[in-house]
Amino acid sequence: MVDWSTLDTVFLDMDGTLLDLHFDNHFWLEHLPKRYAEHHDLHPQQAKDTLIPMIMAERGSLNWYCTDYWSDRLSLDITRLKAEVGDRIGYRPHVPEFLQSLRKGGLKSVIVTNCHPDPLALKLQRTGLDRHVDDIVSSHDLDKPKEDREFWQALATRTRYRHDRTLMVDDSFPVLESARDAGIRQCLAVLAPDSRQPAREPHAEIPGIHHFDEILPALRCLAPAKGSTRV
Questions:
Q1: What does the domain layout of the chain look like in residue ranges?
Q2: In what order do the strands lie in the sheet containing 108-113?
Q3: What's the topology of domain 4-21+91-225?
Q4: How far is CA 26 from CA 50, 81, 163, 197, in A?
Q5: Is the pTM of this model over 0.85?
Q6: Which domain of life is it from (predicted)?
Q7: CB 167, CB 7: distance < 8 Å
Q8: At what angle do helices 44-56 and 67-74 cross, to 10 degrees?
């Protein structure tokens, strides 16, 4: 599923890959409509019927992920509202062990996320995730979402990597397709990003896992053969 022996770098999505997507799904589908209804004196279902099409219309764009954009458009402090349900932020299964094994194996680990810097700071504060990886890059710093093939060109100006020696792990099929089309040789899909929702069907061309324990044994076998990160 993953040829660890050919890798120098592992790019990792955050929400739905390292962290449980339940937080984000709960916020956008339940908590935000509730607060929006209170703010505009609407019935909760009426708020949902207004918000969901508005949000979905931005899917795949940088606006879809931008806290500032939604704060301005909805006249609500999105970062503050996210903090209200911050107790739902948490790791997906086996993530700490996986990150530890990447480090022991001498592989460079970089979180590559579409998350806006403000909620990113909240999630790092809650999880300490930044202590377990070598770098974190937000697409907002590069002005392109990961779904855009040009993102990967811009990423190369921020963190050095070789396409043929890099693995991208993400729960988004469009992002993985974008990475693959940009030349990243190995891609891996996470099929169970939300702990409260059923797993998705696999991608026709990109291998997938439900949890990291499915690939940990092979990674751990690699660890003694490497002393340090090679890039």
A1: 4-21+91-225, 23-87
A2: 135-138, 108-113, 9-12, 166-170, 186-190, 208-209
A3: Rossmann fold (3.40.50)
A4: 17, 12, 35, 11
A5: yes
A6: Bacteria
A7: yes
A8: 130
